[in-house]
Write a structure and sequence with these properties.
Elements (H helix, E strand, L loop, with lengths): L2 H12 L5 H16 L3 H6 L7 H15 L4 H5 L1 E4 L2 E4 L9 H13 L7 E5 L5 H9 L4 E6 L2 H13 L5 E4 L17 E6 L4 E2 L8 H4 L8 E2 L6 H13 E10 L5 H10 L2 E8 L5 E8 L2
Parallel strand pairs: 3-4, 3-6, 4-5, 6-9, 7-8
Antiparallel strand pairs: 1-2, 9-11, 10-11
Helix pairs in contact: 1-2, 6-7
Length: about 290
């Protein structure tokens, strides 16, 4: 069957739920990833066909998209900060706003600096691996409570040719004494922890609610900063003097985050917005 005909079917089946340009994006992501056919290649050869086995694969993808399954989970990979990452339902799909957090850290330090970096709640490993790729002399540690997530992170480290130390631990109940990796302080601690309140669920799209791991997304409305509190407390004792703590945050809790860091004696606290003028990142510097 010709790919052009399948593209028409994609629009017929999906335009009611997605924007037409988004449907084209899905279609060409699939074509390029699975069949090595780019948008330009198909334009130059509009009669390009696929065999029945390939057609079944793309048809199954179409059915999954109709059920709002994220394209990244269908393809089992995504691109983040110029690198390829494998993803599974065990990990969150890396977001563009997290790339802004990476850029903030990268602009703060020399590329050759011998940093010790700790990524808490690593998931796919996108933060830890992106930083390890840039800071060639850094020692990068990554924590997650999910063994499945850590397996994905390890695979992604291998895929991108870097080494990170993966540690299974619950940051809410971590016993530092049993982790010798914490014997030496860190220069940078970074985290994108769960921060979506239950009350925000009605505003979320089905592709997130139905497929991405709730463990990595949601917190109780009564204590939405519980992970930030635990990480900030740990950072007080495990950052070097003048070491920095970076967070991705809930856009509605920026002022609360400023107060949290200042109450824990962090200084030079800075809140940053994303391209849409939403409060999405914060950092503070440890001061003894």
């Amino acid at each position: 069957m010709r790919l052009k005909e399948i593209q028409h079917t994609f629009h017929k089946e999906l335009d009611a739920n997605y924007e037409p340009n988004e449907v084209d994006h899905f279609f060409f992501m699939i074509c390029e990833t699975w069949f090595n056919v780019t948008r330009l290649a198909l334009a130059l050869n509009p009669k390009r066909s696929i065999n029945p086995e390939e057609y079944k694969k793309i048809h199954d993808a179409l059915e999954a998209l109709k059920a709002h399954k994220p394209i990244q989970y269908i393809l089992k990979s995504t691109t983040f900060y110029g690198l390829e990452f494998q993803v599974s339902p065990s990990v969150l799909i890396p977001r563009p706003e997290t790339e802004d957090l990476i850029s903030w850290i990268i602009e703060s330090y020399d590329a050759l600096a011998k940093l010790r970096i700790l990524d808490i709640g690593t998931g796919s490993g996108c933060i830890a691996i992106s930083l390890a790729k840039h800071f060639k002399n850094a020692e990068v540690l990554a924590i997650d409570v999910s063994e499945d997530a850590l397996q994905v992170a390890k695979q992604n480290a291998d895929l991108n040719g870097v080494y990170i130390t993966c540690i299974k631990a619950d940051i809410l109940n971590i016993d530092i004494e049993n982790h010798p990796e914490f014997n030496e302080a860190f220069d940078v601690i970074v985290s994108n922890p769960p921060y979506v309140r239950q009350l925000e669920k009605p505003q979320m799209r089905a592709n997130v609610l139905d497929y991405e791991p709730h463990l990595a997304l949601f917190v109780d409305d009564q204590d939405p900063l519980k992970f930030y509190k635990a990480i900030t407390e740990l950072s007080k004792h495990n950052l070097v003097n003048q070491g920095e703590l970076f967070f991705e945050i809930n856009e509605f809790l920026g002022e609360d985050m400023i107060h949290l860091l200042e109450d824990h004696a962090f200084h030079e606290v800075e809140l940053r917005q994303d391209l849409f003028k939403r409060n999405r990142m914060i950092k503070g510097k440890k001061h003894i």
